[in-house]
Amino acid sequence: MDTGFNSAEIRRTLQGAGDAADQKSDSIGEKMRFGRDGTLPEALTRAGRYKTLDSGHRVKEVIINSGSVAARRFVVVHNPVQAERDAGKRDEIIAEAERRLAALGDLTGKSHTKAACDMRAH
């Protein structure tokens, strides 16, 4: 699901659109991230064993509010290849930020551009 389209309201609408007996009608794929308050989605905090597939992906099923009309079923998938790629990208971003900061040098008491000030602030 596209992040611009992913909201609790949209998910509720889509879940109500299909036949309740047809579990495939309310499947939504999304990349789970930290919330705005820095916490993980509940589906990622639930204990459980992952099963490793032949492809190397690890999967587990998580059901929240089981037995309730508000129940939500998650199939949590960990892709080690994508995780390695993501870690490499983060490392590149950090290295570039550190390079730019080092290029600014010590700005104490010196005039500098707004771009330099923004880089220091962020």
Describe the model.
With 122 residues, the chain is of the alpha+beta class. The chain has 2 domains: 8-81, no CATH class; 83-121. Helix content is 39%, strand content 13%. It has 4 helices and 3 strands. It is elongated and about 65 Å long.
What tags apply to this protein structure?
2 domains, single chain, 39% helix, alpha+beta, 122 residues
Give me a quick take on this structure:
By secondary structure, this protein is an alpha+beta fold. 39% of the residues lie in helices and 13% in strands. The two termini are 29 Å apart.
Helix-strand blueprint:
Blueprint: H1 8-17, H2 42-45, E1 51-52, E2 58-64, E3 72-78, H3 80-104, H4 114-121
Antiparallel strand pairs: 1-2, 2-3
Strand order of the largest sheet: 1-2-3
Mean pLDDT value: 78
Low-confidence stretches: none
How many helices does DSSP assign?
A: 4
